[in-house]
Design a protein that fits this description.
The complex is a heterodimer.
Chain A: H1 7-31, E1 41-47, E2 51-53, E3 64-66, E4 70-77, H2 81-111, H3 119-135, H4 140-179, H5 184-204, H6 210-226, E5 229-233, E6 239-243, E7 251-252, E8 255-256, H7 267-276, H8 282-304, E9 309-310, E10 325-326, H9 344-350, H10 356-397, H11 401-435
Chain B: H1 7-34, H2 45-100, H3 106-127, E1 130-131, E2 134-135, E3 162-166, E4 169-172, H4 189-201, H5 205-258, H6 262-287
Antiparallel strand pairs in B: 1-2, 3-4
Helix pairs in contact in B: 1-6, 2-3, 2-4, 2-5, 3-4, 4-5
């Protein structure tokens, strides 16, 4: 069976076109080297369907397949779904660790320990003021100094409690802002649902919208830092997303639904919830413990000097630290019974230094310090793990400029060579058309 | 597994490493400039709580020292008054020796009786001595003068003034006037002197001679009181010395707990600085070259 003389021209043309597409893809990769969430793409080439000669293709009469060049089968997005899964699980952990560490860090700052403005310093000055009163129980200056110092101490408890309350409130406010209608979760959910619709339309038509898939993956990354995100990939290219331990999917075939979050949403939202829950949250527990210290202080001082402090320790209505107040005044303050220099009460109260209230407060600070330390360590751990997975993912999907430069040369050379093959074909036809059969002309 | 290394990855990792190194550098710098090993509880929760306890004990140690200094002032005042009272009794003794002599005429005895009355007033005045506005021999009712004009009754309380001189240790520093000056007709110094005065005026030589023994007993009683006062003073001074040592030791412990070891911190600082510079240099040269530099 004869083969067309022009057959080779078509083969070369296919080569030219395919290399050109590959160069286009390389250019796209290079252009997006800094695009967040971009996955490198590749023009997948395969030899095109060969020309089949049933008989007489080769000597001996057998048939043959003659190559017909190359086709671009697809533009492939190079990405590993399994690594995405790992990355998102780590991102959820990291989001939670960061949220917790930030909140606890603020709580720690509220305490201003160790330092001259903390409760510890105020407590020891309070004990000293009682000591000074024991020297001069009827001296108005010593009495005023003690009452002032007691006020300062009560105020220090109140201030720290208010600061802690603020940390809890800030966490609650951020949680509300993130989960509100129009908040970040809501926005991301709507965008993903919109992308789902577009992607589904393309995929149903047999198309692969690589760049839209990248956008959706990036949104899913962001969402998983906020809370536990479980994703189901559907055959039509869309994804179903269940977020934050909710009972029903946030995004499914029917689009986006604002679903109430579960008890432990995970991620940053989980951390914010842990911080702000009343009762039982982290900040709540600190306020209860600080209130217990204030309660101990009031009880132990009042046991010696009846009615010196007043306090209501009844969380969460009243945490104690905020309500600690000096109930005694200069008319009721009594350093001792039986004479102007009787000072048994003053001595007994200054004896409390380093005992009950001090050690309760120290234990509180040590516990808080340990927890902040632990949260910081967890944040560092989660950060390192997330980084490692991000590296693996980047290793698969990231654009390497060196590689692209190599590809550029490769495809350019292939293009040039295809072009040379075509010129060669042309010269051959020139011989055939213009120089063959001209004998005698 | 062989990894593809992309430029984005290199850059991100270099940046993360630089951040880590400069964060450590910053922390060390903070330590050096604040001279504190612990700037917040999470730096070292155990030592934070220890440092806080040490600060509290430091503050109370200082308060104990102030208590003792006050007590010492109190003791000094009492000691001076006791010395004066001793002088007065000794003078009374001399006068009685003179007055008891049978050769002393009645009007001379009257003159001596007048002087004895003066001595009684002076003893009562010394009984009313004050330290910082407080009557030191009045027990805990330091706002009430223990002795008033017109009677010899003791108007103070029966409880002594106490000072706290250490954790769990209180010491009674006040002396009750009633225990050595007297409270009405209780056989103490005042009553003995009143008797002397009466016997002089009634010209009773025999009674005067037996009064001499009473005066001797009062002198001894007073020495006992002064010895007690002196012993307390010694005890206070010993306690003060001990508290000063404790304060020094606490300060040392506090410094060991929360102050930075400058030598170590400086070495850390320079090695971290070197690491930072090396990381910067390596980062700069790893980012620079690309295949582009070698392709025509």
């Amino acid at each position: 069976m004869p083969i067309s003389s022009f057959y080779g021209l078509q083969t070369s043309l296919r080569g030219l076109l395919a290399q050109q597409r590959a160069l286009d893809t390389t250019g796209h990769n290079i252009a997006n080297v800094s695009t967040t969430g971009y996955s490198r793409q590749e023009a997948v080439m395969a030899a095109s369907a060969a020309l089949h000669i049933p008989q007489g293709g080769v000597q001996g009469g057998a048939g043959a397949h003659i190559g017909s060049g190359v086709d671009v089968l697809a533009y492939r997005r190079i990405r590993d779904n399994f690594l995405d899964l790992q990355y998102r699980a780590q991102a959820t952990r990291l989001g939670e660790a960061i949220g917790k560490a930030e909140g606890l860090d603020r709580a720690e700052q509220a305490l201003t320990e160790p330092g001259d403005n903390g409760i510890n310093k105020q407590l020891s000055e309070f004990w000293s003021a009682w000591g000074a009163l024991s020297l001069a129980p009827d001296d108005p200056a010593a009495r005023t100094a003690l009452l002032e110092q007691a006020d300062a101490l009560a105020e220090a408890f109140g201030t720290v409690d208010a600061q802690l309350e603020l940390v809890g409130q800030q966490a609650a406010a951020e949680f509300a802002a993130l989960t509100a209608s129009g908040g970040e979760v809501d926005q991301i959910g709507r965008e993903i649902a919109a992308l789902n619709t577009t992607i589904k339309a393309f995929v149903t038509a047999g198309d692969t919208p690589n760049d839209l898939l990248d956008q959706r993956d990036l949104l899913l990354d962001k969402l998983s830092a906020l809370g536990t995100t479980s994703i189901v990939n559907n055959a039509d290219g869309s994804v179903d997303v269940t977020f934050g331990g909710a009972a029903a999917p946030m995004i499914d075939n029917a689009g986006y639904h604002a679903e109430p979050l579960g008890a432990s949403p995970g991620g940053r939202l989980g951390a914010l919830k842990d911080l702000s829950t009343v009762p039982g949250g982290l900040i709540d527990a600190y306020r209860v413990e600080l209130g217990a210290v204030a309660g101990t202080l009031a009880a132990e001082v009042n046991a010696i000097h009846p009615g010196f402090f007043s306090v209501t320790h009844n969380p969460p209505a009243d945490y104690g630290a905020a309500s600690l107040a000096v109930a005694a005044d200069s008319s009721t303050l009594l350093a001792g019974l039986g004479g102007a220099s009787a000072n048994e009460r003053a001595r007994a109260v200054s004896e409390l230094s380093g005992k009950g209230p001090d050690s309760a407060y120290n234990a509180f600070i040590a516990r808080l310090g340990t927890e902040v330390r632990e949260a910081t360590r967890q944040e560092a751990n989660a950060g390192a793990l997330t980084n490692a997975v991000a590296d693996r993912r980047e290793s698969v999907a990231g654009v390497s400029l060196d590689e692209e430069m190599g590809n550029l040369v490769r495809f350019q050379r292939a293009y040039q060579a295809s072009s040379r093959a075509m010129s060669t074909m042309d010269e051959m036809l020139d011989v055939l058309i213009n120089r063959t059969g001209r004998v005698g002309l | 597994m062989a990894m593809r290394i992309t430029s984005g990855m290199t850059q991100r990792n270099i940046l993360a490493d630089l951040n880590r190194v400069s964060e450590r550098l910053n922390k060390t710098h903070q330590k050096i400039s604040s001279n504190r090993e612990i700037t917040r509880p999470s730096d070292d929760p155990f030592n934070t709580s220890r440092a806080m306890a040490l600060r509290t004990s430091m503050e109370s140690t200082q308060q104990f020292q102030r208590n003792i200094e006050d007590a010492l002032g109190w003791q000094d005042t009492a000691e001076t008054a006791l010395a004066d009272i001793g002088d007065a009794i000794r003078r009374a003794h001399e006068l009685v020796v003179e007055g008891a002599s049978d050769s002393t005429p009645p009007d001379a005895r009257l003159a001596i009786a007048d002087e004895i009355d003066q001595l009684i007033e002076s003893i009562k005045q010394n009984g009313n001595v004050t330290y910082r506005g407080r009557y030191v021999f009045s027990g805990t009712t330091t706002d009430v003068p223990p002795y008033a004009d017109g009677d010899d009754a003791f108007h103070g309380s029966t409880a002594g003034v106490e000072r706290q001189i250490g954790p769990g240790v209180s010491l009674e520093i006040g002396l009750l006037g009633s225990s050595f000056i007297g409270n009405g007709a209780d056989g103490k110094a005042l009553q003995v002197l009143r008797d002397v005065s009466t016997h002089l005026r009634s010209n009773d030589g025999a009674a005067l001679r037996s009064d001499l023994q009473g005066l001797d007993a009062k002198t001894e009683e007073l020495s006992g009181v002064r010895a007690l006062n002196g012993a307390r003073q010694n005890r206070l001074e010993a306690a003060l010395g001990r508290l000063q040592e404790v304060e020094g030791a606490t300060l040392q412990q506090l410094s060991n707990t929360e102050d930075v070891d400058i030598a170590k911190a400086m070495i850390d600082f320079s090695s971290q600085q070197a690491a930072y510079q090396a990381a910067l240099k390596a980062g700069a040269s790893i980012i620079q070259p690309s295949l582009m530099d070698f392709l025509r």
